[in-house]
Amino acid sequence: MLTAMFLAALVLITVHSQETEETITYTQCTDGYEWDPVRQRCKDIDECEIVPDACKGGMKCVNHYGGYLCLPRTAQIIVNEREEAAAESTSGRNNVIRRTPADPQRAPPNPTHQIQCAAGYEQSDHNVCQDIDECATGTHTCRADQVCVNLRGSFTCQCPPGYQKRGDQCVDIDECTLPPYCHHRCVNTPGSYYCQCNAGFQLASNNHTCVDINECDANNPCAQQCYNILGSFICQCNPGFELSSDRINCEDTDECRTSSYICQYQCVNEPGKFSCVCPEGYQVVGGRTCQALLSPQQTSAVSAMLVLVKSLAGPREHIVDLEMLTVNSLNYRTSSVLRLTIIVGPYAF
């Protein structure tokens, strides 16, 4: 360094002694340089010292000729000391002109830098370390079932949705073991899952919640009456019918078989109902009991009369069998049989 300064001083002294004209000096320097009035030349500005927070993101600032570089903190710069010294003596003198017969105009030399970049970076054409995109160049080590994501100076391997990293492999996430995703049942699949509902329910539009199916509105399965309940339905039958073993269809109830006392005289089963009938000469009263149409009343020892108890509805034919018994004091017994036919027209009699 002392040798370089001595040579520079010697050159200046020599030039000064040979000048025959006044030296014309312009103190305007190019960007990144400033005029040094003491040394009478342009000197480099150290932006790393005067620019606050010149580099972001934890990068280190490295001063450069006419500017500065932002490099990773692990980066190392190897500079040729001889070229560095030579460049410092003339850099930036783009507009400094000394015209003498013995000293032609000279341009500053172009310094050469060899940059050693950290792992994950490479030297660009502009002598800066730039990130290597391992995902784009195919130099990553991610597995075929993983997704490569580039980072500054490195990369990472991520698993597709539905998988998680375990070591260097992607394994399926069993969503069914996590907090309940599904309302009823959860079915795990590779990389995903789906929900199922119990019988009588269906998935809502969010594919997670189960809502009740109204079977009675959708497609009435019952033969007669249908009542919807949560998750199911109930079938009921009209009076006179009962549910069959399939709990859907209805069968006629034979009321006459349920009790022998349902009618006073005779029970007749009909679809969905029953009716009571009475023998000739009697009519049904109250739906189940029988009442005689004619009531015999004795008028003398050898005579009697029939009294019509109730009006007869028509049109109908009524046949009444009458038997009269005669008993004397000698226990002699006789009987008389009479069949009476009563024809009633369209009007009550």
| Structural class determined from secondary elements | mainly beta
Number of helical segments?
6
Strand content: 35-45%
- Spatially, the strands of the biggest sheet line up as 1-2
Distance between the termini: 154 Å
Mind telling me the C-alpha Rg? Answer: 61 Å
Low-confidence stretches: 1-25, 81-111
Q: How helix-rich are the residues, as a percent range? A: 10-25%
**Biggest sheet features:** 2 strands, antiparallel
What is the residue-mean pLDDT, rounded to a whole number?
A: 78
Number of strands: 28
3D structure, described in words:
InterPro entries: cEGF, EGF, EGF-like_Ca-bd_dom, EGF-like_CS, EGF-type_Asp/Asn_hydroxyl_site, EGF_Ca-bd_CS, Fibulin_C, Growth_fac_rcpt_cys_sf. Residues 85-113 are annotated as: Disordered. Interacts with ECM1. Interacts with TIMP3. It is a single chain. By secondary structure, the protein is mostly beta strands. 12% of the residues lie in helices and 38% in strands. The chain folds into six domains: 2-130, no CATH class; 136-172, Laminin, CATH 2.10.25; 175-212, Laminin (Ribbon); 217-253, Laminin, CATH 2.10.25.10; 254-292, Laminin (Ribbon), CATH 2.10.25.10; 295-349, no CATH class. The strands form 14 sheets. It has a two-stranded antiparallel sheet. Strands 3-4 form a two-stranded antiparallel sheet. The protein is rod-shaped and about 180 Å long. Mean pLDDT is 78; it is low at 1-25 and 81-111.
